[in-house]
Model the fold of this input.
Amino acid sequence: MKHWLTYILICPIEKEVRYVGITSVSLDKRLEYHLNETHNRKKAKWIAWLRDQGLVPLIKRIDDCYGTRKDAERRERHYVWSYLAKGCRLFNRNYNYGDGFAEYLKSNRISTKPPSRRYPSDRSYTKQQYSERTGG
Done:
């Protein structure tokens, strides 16, 4: 059993959540890993774009739990789904968003209509549009 943090990466320009993750190390160490990783190419390109402008993503703890990795992954999935339902364009991958996603929305009374925002409507994605855009 470990202490797990659930965190988000936020675009410092758009102030939009772009990634949800879990870690058992400090947020500083986890951010450093994100700055150097390459296996999630779309996220890596976004981070490289930010770094070209002298910026890095903001990292923020949103939850924590003490348990197994599986327990932490359950919480992470909850937050991924929650942010997707709010229209966030996440770089998360390796999730089958269809598996339980509709039930999650219904059980939490979350509308599938794009949220109203100050941004242009093309920034709000349905689950299918998100999958097509990210290849996930």
In short: Strands lie at 2-10, 17-23, 58-67. The radius of gyration is 15 Å. Residues 112-126 have pLDDT under 50 and may be disordered.
